[in-house]
Amino acid sequence: MESSRPIAASPFTDEDVFNAVKRMSRQAATAIDPWTKDLLLSIISVDRDNASMLAGVLHRILTLHGPAEEEAGRPFSEAAMNIVRAGRLIGIPKGEHDIRPIVISCSLAKLLGTVVLNKCSSKCSAHQFALNTVRGHERIAHMARRELNNGKVVHRIDSRNAFNIAARAKIFNIVKRPGEKDPHLLQYFVTMYQPVSSLFVFGENGRTARVMANEGVRH
To answer: Cα separations (Å) of 110 from 17, 156, 162, 218?
Structure first.
């Protein structure tokens, strides 16, 4: 994948952080850190300045540097970025003899991703029927039944392990298209997915294993 220099992405505000935290799910699986929606809400609600500071941290992660570090010629700590990029690899039982491997991002990465999606002009396909929809699976079922009643044919296709085998170079070529290019979304992809990242598996008796990933995307 070709490299890309940091591009202009406007700073985040405390309102950006509030809106992103409110969109987080309380049922979301935890990653390598213990942060949850309720913990983040309690921190930013008790003092608005906390939301502003968190907005600054998120923007610094996105652009890989801050004003002080830029003047001193020091980039954002790579050790810190490795933690932000790290994910938790888990296997969900699928059927009788199969598992579905998924990667859960750390809370800062998920929060940053939500802020970016809220700010960017890029929108998901109209065919993402259940995205950000309460009981989305029910909506899909009703739409499919309605189309069947109208004489249409429903064809089900399941892409095996789609998240983990997605080619990052192909995704990069999509997000950098002139018609799709958004400074926040493009910078997020460059920051989070151009470097190789660590995925951690937690087992019994405190055992852990690390897998290095250079393809695929995190949840």
So the answer is: 12, 29, 19, 9
d(CA 98, CA 152): 32
Closest by alpha carbon to 90, among 103, 74, 79? 103
Question: So where are the chain's domains?
Answer: 14-213
Pull the structure tokens for residue 104.
């859960």
Q: Tens of pLDDT along 11-50?
A: 898 999 999 888 887 777 777 787 888 888 998 988 889 9
Kindly state the DSSP code that residue 159 receives in the 8-state scheme.
-
What is the value of pTM for the model shown? 0.73
pLDDT tens per residue across span 191-212: 888 888 888 888 888 888 888 8
Q: Which residues contact 27 (CB under 8 A, 6 or more apart)?
A: none
Task: Please say whether the beta carbons of 49 and 97 come within 8 A.
Answer: no
- Distance (Å, whole) CA 155 – CA 150: 15
